[in-house]
TrEMBL record:
Listed Pfam families: Aminotran_1_2
Domain Aminotransferase class I/classII large: 32-357
Homology family: Belongs to the class-II pyridoxal-phosphate-dependent aminotransferase family. MalY/PatB cystathionine beta-lyase subfamily.
Entry keyword Nucleotide-binding: no
Cofactor dependency: pyridoxal 5'-phosphate
PANTHER family: PROTEIN MALY
Keyword Oxidoreductase recorded: no
Name of the featured protein: cysteine-S-conjugate beta-lyase
Native organism taxonomy: Bacteria, Pseudomonadati, Pseudomonadota, Gammaproteobacteria, Pseudomonadales
Length: 370
């Protein structure tokens, strides 16, 4: 069985620790596990070539992406559909810039803060769909609103951050149907696509009937293999017209691909499936421990289908839960950042001992007294 290696972070070189140097980091969405050895070796070999000239994107990188999309999502894609981008968010911004610099953009809330604030910096009117109580995206009323609003773009986050929901086929097909007669483009940020903890399979937007030629799907090995600092992602765009416009816009506004990112991506996608399975086992176990612990507290938590982010309801707990945790040495994210005050987001992608420190703190501070 592949072993996961814990890492020790330093405040000088990791955002996770720099923001709250005195606290154990459970806020930013990266992991306290080392990147798989196969990726480290591939990157080391590339470094030893001794230069970082402008990279060419080798055929093998496209092949590795095709291989991954087929294996992970049962999605057969053509090489031509793939556009390498510097990172997921730059890909989302290029998608907006190239397809709909004006008009209305539909977004879900709560949402990853960089998506929630996406309309800033563009001449776009945001239209926010509140996720319903059970958290599912696209209720009938949302779909009706789409038809009435005629948005230039619908930006999906699937699986959702912070709520960890995986969109199902019916939801995505209903979405496709609702924009059938509109010029709306679906821009789907699927950065968390590989961190699936429940039974559902991830379905990329571009694989859905009716969305193939109306979508830009953004994927990345960044969350899956702890590569955020190396910065690499890709867009899958089956429609040639949308793709050409995207490429033209990227050349102008967001060019610059990391040579090491390409090497890391290829190695991850060809060599690290077993490592991912080991990671998912650990995350499922951590999620269970967290759930069991929080049942004994005033904090409300329902384990999610995806991501290593726990979305926790603190509204029935007295005082500022974020502050209390920080004072006790546990740094989480404040739900306000994602559009939901009264909630916190807790990253459980960490080794057992760190999780135990956090769960003991939860119990010390918030244990239910019967
Ligand atoms: C949904 C989502 N998209 C994008 C990102 C950032 O990805 P990248 O670093 O590749 O831009 C994050 C990071 O947390 C995220 O949660």
């Amino acid at each position: 069985m592949t072993e996961l290696r814990p890492i020790t972070r330093q405040a000088e070189n990791t955002l996770a620790l720099a923001k709250y140097p005195e606290a154990q980091p459970h806020w930013v969405a990266d992991m306290a596990f080392a990147t798989p050895d196969a990726i480290i070796s591939a990157v080391r070999k590339r470094i030893e070539e001794g230069h970082f000239s402008y990279p060419n994107i080798p055929y093998s990188v496209y092949e590795s992406i095709q291989h991954w999309c087929k294996n992970q999502y049962d999605w057969s894609i053509q090489k031509e559909w793939i556009v390498i981008v510097p990172n997921t968010i730059s890909g989302v911004r290029t998608a907006i810039k190239s397809t709909c610099p004006q008009g209305t953009v539909m977004l879900q809330s709560p949402n990853y803060n960089k998506l929630l604030n996406l309309s800033k910096g563009f001449h776009l009117t945001p239209y926010t769909i509140e996720l319903t109580d059970n958290g599912r995206p696209f209720t009938l009323s949302d779909l009706r609103h789409i038809k009435q609003t005629n948005p230039s773009a619908i930006v999906l986050c699937n699986p959702t951050n912070p709520t960890g929901i995986v969109s199902i086929q019916e939801e995505l097909e209903s979405l496709a149907l609702s924009i059938k007669n509109l010029d709306t483009i679906v821009i789907s940020d699927e950065a968390h696509a590989d961190i699936i903890l429940g039974q559902r399979r991830h379905l990329p937007a571009g694989s859905i009937k009716g969305l193939e030629n109306k979508s830009i799907t953004l994927l990345s090995p960044s969350k899956t293999f702890n590569l955020a600092g190396i910065s690499i992602a890709y867009a899958v765009i089956p429609c040639p017209k949308i793709r050409d416009k995207f490429k033209e816009t990227q050349t102008f506004y967001a060019s610059g691909i990391n040579a090491l990112g390409l090497v890391a991506l290829e190695s991850a996608y060809f060599n690290c499936s077993d490592w991912l399975q080991a990671l998912l086992q650990q995350l499922k176990s951590n999620q269970k421990v967290l759930h069991t612990t929080l049942r004994h507290t005033s904090l409300k938590y329902k384990p999610s289908e995806a991501t290593y982010l726990a979305w926790i309801d603190t509204r029935e707990t007295d005082g500022d839960v974020f502050d209390k945790l920080l004072q006790a040495g546990i740094a989480v994210s404040n739900g306000e950042e994602f559009g939901s005050p009264g909630w916190i987001r807790f990253n459980f992608a960490c080794p057992q001992d760190q999780l135990t420190t956090a769960t003991c703190t939860f119990l010390d501070l918030f244990r239910n007294i019967k």
